[in-house]
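User: Sequence in, structure out. Go.
Assistant: Echoing your sequence, followed by the structure tokens.
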Amino acid sequence: MTLNNTVDVDGQLLELVWNNTNDAIFTIGYDGHILDANPAFISILGWDKKDLEYQLASPIFTECSYLDAQKTLEKLRLGQDITYHVTERKRKDGQILNILASYKAVHSKDILAVGMYKDFTEQMRIQQKLQANKECYQNLVEFIPAALFVEQNGLILFLNTPGIHMLGGSNKAKFVKKNLWHLLRSTDQQSLQEKVYRAKEAGVPIVEKVQREDGHTFWAEISVMPTIFNKQFVNQWLVRDITLKKNYQDQLEYMAFHDPLTGLVNRRFFIDHVDHVINSVADDHTQFAILYLDMDKFKRINDEFGHDVGDELLKQFADKLRYSLRQEDVICRIGGDEFLVFLSDIHSKEEIERIIDRLIVKLKESYPINHHEFSVTTSIGASIFPKDGDNVKTLMRKADQALYTAKEKRDSYALYDRL
């Protein structure tokens, strides 16, 4: 290829780029005037070549960008190229555009430099929106009451202020890059990790009792979801300390199944428990007994000495029952001075009678209350499963009938099958 042919091809390529690129390309004279501009320049800024002729200060500059342009001219006159930078330019209709500008010093004849503009307005708008969203997100995660942790492979990449407090610290740097599993532990760490991963897959929170590095324990509601942080796939943890809520729920559940005065289980719990035992009976040889207890002449003490003494007597009576029975036996206060006892795994009627004899003796021991010594006796009725019934209500009714017989003598007991 000859030199002339090469020049012709280069010229054709330059003309093709000049006329078809989406970027504004223009030439600048030594005095700063725009000498020529391509079609994209006119499309982007709205100014044509005639608009720009014979103007001392180019109308494309805003007040601020004009000062920067004078500094740019000085550098171009010194032969320095200007790399990409964001500046402002004014369209013919008055709209201010964000422009990504660059300049190449050429110093050819009357041309000082060649400039190129990219309309960066939309990109800047998106960037500003993203920045605003980022700031909004950062403000949100800082002020939500829950702790937020961004974790990857167990390591903390980010945590908010509530997260710092939850871990027992005051400095974010102390926890970044630390293993979250070491900072929030469980008595069964493997089980905790498995539950967290299952919750992440299912998109549901879990409730676990966890322990901090300093030994402080609390109930946590943990939600984990996959997300993207700094262009990386990570896990976002949202952790709420629900200790107060959990304690309140436990208290409500306790109150639903326990007598508030004595702490014994109530009738509802007792019936559910015995029903469960009956439904779980493994063979025909299983036996258990239900005892129905009533304090003799409790009403007289309660009326004569007041309800405070009566309440204290009931509490001490309940304590004596606890100390006199096995751990697997269930004691229930029905109300007033009436109690139920579930005796599990009974092997003979004689065993029941030995337990009852021991109870009657123990419950006769004195009750010290307000510098007085009180003594009460107890009447007890008993029914046996499965001989006296195959359901809890029948067994309770027959134990009550046996109690009625025992009350006729007081300080005694009666078995239903001997009535």
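User: And one key feature?
Assistant: The CA atoms of residues 80 and 105 lie 6 Å apart.
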